[in-house]
Amino acid sequence: MAGEKVAAENNSFNVLRHSLVPEHHLLTEEEAEAILKQLKITRDQLPKIKTTDPAIIVLETIHGPIAEGSVIKVVRKSETAQEFTAYRLVTKG
To answer: Is residue 16 assigned to a domain?
Structure first.
């Protein structure tokens, strides 16, 4: 895992630029609260994404350390649905 962080920091390979990896965006606390309210769910009901996930490691090079409990927006392109948005809760790992 440490090698992945070094690679991300050196920009030798940015996993978020790969065509098969969906867009990942860190939401502000206000955006996260609005989404949770809109979906009528709690943070614990969101699917999880670990801090060791390569996408999170790359996002940390942009935004700085991402705290446990943060919410990530994942946007997938689809031939049938055009675009599908999902949300993930950042957990230790």
So the answer is: no
For the chain, the domain total comes to 1
Token pair, residue 54, equals 């390569």
Q: What are the two backbone dihedrals, phi and then psi, of residue 51, each rounded to the nearest 5 degrees?
A: -65, -20
Sheet architecture: strand order including 23-26? 23-26, 71-78, 82-91, 48-50
Euclidean distance between CA atoms 73 and 88, whole angstroms:
7
**H or E element that contains 83:** strand 82-91
pTM of the model: 0.81
Contact 91, 84 (CB under 8 A): no
Say if CB 70 and CB 90 are below 8 A apart. Answer: yes
Domain coverage including residue 74: 2-11+22-91
Q: CATH no. for residue 50?
A: 3.90.940.20
pLDDT along the chain (93 residues), means of 10: 46 72 94 98 97 93 94 92 93 92
